[in-house]
Design goal:
Blueprint (H helix, E strand, L loop, with lengths): L2 H20 L3 H11 L1 H27 L4 H4 L5 H17 L4 H16 L1 H33 L4 H27 L2 H8 L6 H10 L1 H16 L2 H17 L1 H11 L5 H16 L10 H12 L4 H43 L5
Amino acid sequence: MKKKYQNAFFLFGLAVLIVMITQLPFAQVWQGLQHAGYWFFAVVILWAFLYIFNTGAWYIIIKNTSSSAKERKSPVKFWWLYKVTISGFALNYATPGGLMGGEPYRIMALAPKIGTERASSSVILYVMTHIFSHFWFWMLSSVLFFVTQRVTVFMAILLSIVIAVCLLAIWFFLKGYKRGLAVSGMRLLSHIPGMHRRANRFIESHREQLDTIDKQIASLHNQNPRTFVSVVLLELTCRFCSALEVFFCLMVLYTSVNFIDCILIIAFTTLFANLLFFMPLQLGGREGGFLMSTTGLGLTSGAGIFVALIVRVRELVWTAIGLLLIKIEKRNKERNDSSQTSEQPQKP
């Protein structure tokens, strides 16, 4: 990735991070961190392991969206991809609309190693799988709520709607996996007012590249069904393991915690927060989701506020780490470029 683009991503993320930090109630944050004690560090460290699941899913996709044995031996190393994954999520946390920040960064970071088309298809596939696993998680959690909780008529209707929407979304994504989404996505953009001519012009000038990306997207599902299932299971496992974050927070407040309740809390909190995807760091949506889900399961509102506070600070910590990794990657690239220049023989 060019130096100016790395600088742009870093400065943008840093600016948003500073704004987000200034919006925190510092006295309440400090009190919450003191109360959490070492459990806060457990929450932060947990995400170092959860990002391994995300990286593993993306790594498998990159290895399998290739048409030749030579492409499968790509120069992408797992731990380098791990750093890019963390930085990509950091930019997503800080960007209104989520995917407008992290995914362009991932494509631009990966393109010099495997080419723009393969980089684009792998990122699109990973995003599809990431969202696809969320719908599975929400649907399975709704079923889990029916099985383990006392369900009122209102909740039965609400959960039935959630399950129906999730099934519809899963069907839509399966169609996208079979046919690809690059061309159809651009055609969808052409129906937006003011984007018709630009989208059609882009389709016409990049038709071959878009078709190649769609073929690579479809190949993972059609030619490698076991690989496709393993990628989805990795992401879905990450969703369930993320409930440990809530588990650690509630351990501070209660002597015994039900892990199933933690799964339900994280499921319905993320569902509510994603309905407010346009807000940077999902401000307000995440907090409101924790408050409603904890009180809905019979816990106190204070527990919901405490969990939301710890999770918000954790997100800020990992956003800062992700931005720092962008800066470190930039310095390493500059050092490598300078060493390569110095090794070249001087012309007489």
